[in-house]
TrEMBL record, chains A, B:
Recorded superkingdom: Bacteria
Span of domain HTH merR-type: 1-71
Name by which UniProt lists this protein: MerR family transcriptional regulator
Keywords of the record: DNA-binding, Repressor, Transcription, Transcription regulation
Gene3D superfamilies: 1.10.1660.10, Antibiotic binding domain of TipA-like multidrug resistance regulators (1.10.490.50)
InterPro entries listed in its UniProt record: DNA-bd_dom_put_sf, MerR-type_HTH_dom, MerR_fam, TipA-like_antibiotic-bd, TipAS_dom
Annotated organism of origin: Catenulispora yoronensis
Length: 252, 252
DNA sequence: GCTTGACCTTGACGTTACGGAAGCTTCTAC
DNA sequence: GTAGAAGCTTCCGTAACGTCAAGGTCAAGC
């Protein structure tokens, strides 16, 4: 069984151009080329492509991928180098981001608000969400059912991932707050949109409900405490952002 | 007073090639061009160049710089966009780095050691280093004098910056630990070299002294507690890294 | 047998922000 | 007068493709 370039492209999600490029640089040669010049790929090439795509996801360059994939022992070394590069680059971006935030504050003549941000890996670690079950079942019976089913469909790893992402989102929001970004700034609206989507994972709040949810983050001490663990005033900022988002993008 | 391209290059730290490039794309035109084709710059151009370099430091593209610099009101908007891009990119790199770490663990068949890492902005905030003064004066009288003078020469902002960087370095080290990187891996040696340099800011430990300092991070409860705030086992890892570095790169 | 449209090919240019080199002209100092 | 430093333009290269352009191939329907 052999596949044409477009078929492989559809199966793997890369473009035909990319496959030709990989052929050009010798990273992934087709199994054979027809008399008409067409490239034909076999399963072996698909497997190799999979490896390539995994390593590409990890940020390796195509040259590194080629050497790593063709000489297995180098792979771990290459990944370690890449890991070091990644965290170095991440820290550089973090520093630059802070400088940009300070510069914005300067330009606006705003006093430098030194917001202290804590960055836990996973704020919800060991968090027992069932403590809210009775209350939620009572207040929103239908939504509770849906949410319950969603929760049941998640593995531990899914939960872990979701918690990490939620924590990271809270931290990003704290950074917008620290940078003095108004809650109706497009960037904050986008970030809040992500938050709305993550809520939609469980239920779909309309304008009123979403605004209300934001208020709850402030009014309910348990929620507020979680936000405050990241940064002082974050619950209020988050609530304001949600209100602004609901106003701008949600309908009743 | 006009300056030639090489003079401007020396004054500003960019290359002449870069200045020609900025001329080509219209970002920074010389004040005038001589009959011989030479570019001559005046103070106005130097000021503009300074602005360009600041914005370039902040990660803006040259096109963005051009529009931002020529229409002041756009500047803050451009910076806000850039800030959002930066933290988005930073988070993406953080996610990829975690995946790489997991992949390495997989490939090595190592059990997934879930190290929890805390990432405070500044671990030493409100830290009173003078609590160690008496002890240090007693144990290393000469070095203490030098360190004291160094400390006096630093402004509050310097201290703040140093503390942030020290915290970030501890977090990076925790990540190497979480990734299972051996302490004698080149990346860890490099990171430890940075630590050694930061220590050299105050005094210059030789092989024995540096190894000893590492042991103190583990043995002295107060030091160890600080490392443990970032991650469990970090003090031991840091000490081992310092011993490996001393062994490999320092002499007695 | 012809047309149509989907699919394939190679080749070349554009992207970012310059680095580097070739080949030539100009300035400056001795 | 000449050497060497400095200047100029022009072109190629970078990473990983995207995006035409111009043309050949294939399968299906009429």
């Amino acid at each position: 069984m052999s596949w044409s370039i477009a078929q492989v492209a559809r199966m793997s999600g890369v473009t035909a151009r990319t496959l030709r490029h990989y052929d050009d640089i010798g990273l992934l040669k087709p199994d054979h080329v027809g008399a008409n010049g067409y490239r034909y790929y076999e399963e072996a090439q698909l497997l190799r492509l999979q490896q390539i795509l995994v390593l590409r996801e990890l940020g390796l360059g195509l040259a590194d991928i080629a050497t790593a994939i063709d000489s297995e022992p180098d792979l771990i070394a290459a990944l370690r180098r890449q890991h070091a590069r990644l965290i170095g680059e991440r820290d550089r971006l973090a520093r630059v981001a802070r400088t940009v935030a300070r510069t914005i504050a300067d330009l606006e003549g705003r006093p430098e608000v030194a917001v202290r941000i804590n960055r836990p890996e996973n704020l919800f670690e060991g968090f027992d969400s069932s403590q809210y079950d009775d209350e939620a079942r009572e207040r929103w019976p239908e939504d509770f059912e849906r949410a319950q089913r969603t929760r049941e469909s998640m593995t531990d790893a899914d939960v872990e991932r979701w918690q990490r992402e939620a924590t990271a989102a809270m931290i990003r929001m704290a950074e917008f707050m620290a940078a003095g970004t108004p809650v109706d700034d497009p960037a904050v609206l986008d970030e809040t949109h992500q938050h709305w989507l993550s809520i939609c994972h469980w239920w779909t709040p309309n304008r009123t409900a979403y605004t209300c949810l934001g208020r709850m983050y402030v009014d309910d001490e348990r929620f507020k405490a979680n936000y405050t663990k990241i940064a002082e005033g974050l619950a209020e900022y988050q609530a304001a952002a949600m209100a602004a988002y609901a106003e701008a993008r949600l309908s009743d």
